[in-house]
Amino acid sequence: MKGKYYEFRKYQAPSDYSMQYDNELEEYEEHFGLLNEPDKCGVTRGIKWFSYAFTIFKDNLLTWLAISVIYGIIISVLDLRFVLKIIAFFVMFHFTAGFIFVSALQEEGEQPNIGDMFAGFRHKFVPLLLLTLLEIVFIIIISFIAGFALSMIISGLDIMSIMREALQMQKVFSGYIIFLLLIMMIPFIVLLMALWHAPALIMLHDISPFQAMKMSFKGYLRNMLPFTLLGLLMVVFIIMLIILAIFINLLTVSLGFSGSDFIFWLMSPLFAIMTYTSYRDIWTHVMIDEE
Fold first, then answer.
1. Quick one: how far is CA 32 from the chain centroid?
2. pLDDT for 27-81, tens place per residue?
3. Which of 63, 82, 161, 209 holds its CA 20 to 30 A away from the CA of 54?
4. How would DSSP label each residue in 228-271?
């Protein structure tokens, strides 16, 4: 199986390249095997998804570092103007799909090129753009419902009485606010579940955006425990990166630039690889630690 899916990477004219991509996509599905239903993984697989992402990164370190730097520079440039920030938002899934594509190349025994990080733009620009638009639609719907529900709750409360009680019972009031915020977060967590594997399913299996969201949600829901563990590990990792970034900033502040930027540039590729490792276990016949 190794190498078959990605033989099309040799240079071809754009039209031939796209046609070969479609043909190899079919061959990939035949050999790799997309499951009809998501597999249910043990809770400890969350640790494997996290650690194996670092293995993939380490095994092709120079390429991934170069990809991280190029990605960071592009995002930094897009962050300079408001209009460019909007563009950056609309192409986030394209970068994620590219990072997933590079991971798949590497796992197939191929040597990925730096240009492969743009595979999402080259092959799946419209589907990934539609995925972004779906995300925006759901965010608007969720925000509207959450805002309406919150306004209804507040309108039914005696604000002055609550304020007086808050002076006497600050902890209770604070706990109530935290509870409301947690309730409001639930729809956004559901949206995250629907988006987690969608770029991989679109990029590697030609699934339509809405169908990919439904499949991603179903796979996430069936594997809540390992995903919870993965999420905790990612939070710890982010905290460690923040601490490291603060330390690096203290060392580089006298030089007039933020040396911590590169630390955060690594996050998106690494998290995208974690998307790939969990997708492999849940949606294909070949788990990440199988030869």
1. 22
2. 666 666 788 899 999 999 999 999 999 999 999 999 999 999 999 999 989 888 8
3. 209
4. HHHHHHHHHHHHHHHHHHHHHHHHHGGGTS-TTHHHHHTHHHHH
Amino acid identity at 111: Q
- pLDDT tens, residue by residue, 109-148: 788 889 889 999 989 999 999 999 999 999 999 888 877 7
CA dist 22 and 19 (Å) reads 5
Distance, in Å, from the CA atom of 244 to the CA atom of 241, rounded to the nearest integer, reads 5
> Are 195 and 213 contacting, i.e. CB atoms less than 8 angstroms apart?
yes
- Single-letter code of the amino acid located at 47: I
Report which residue type is found at 139.
I
Contact 226, 41 (CB under 8 A): yes
Torsion of CA 260, 263, 268, 272, to 10 degrees: -170
Helix (H) or strand (E) holding 164: helix 159-168
Q: What is the Cα 203 distance to its own chain's centre?
A: 13
- What are the beta bridge partners of residue 34? 284
Closest CA to 100 of 227, 200, 205, 206: 200
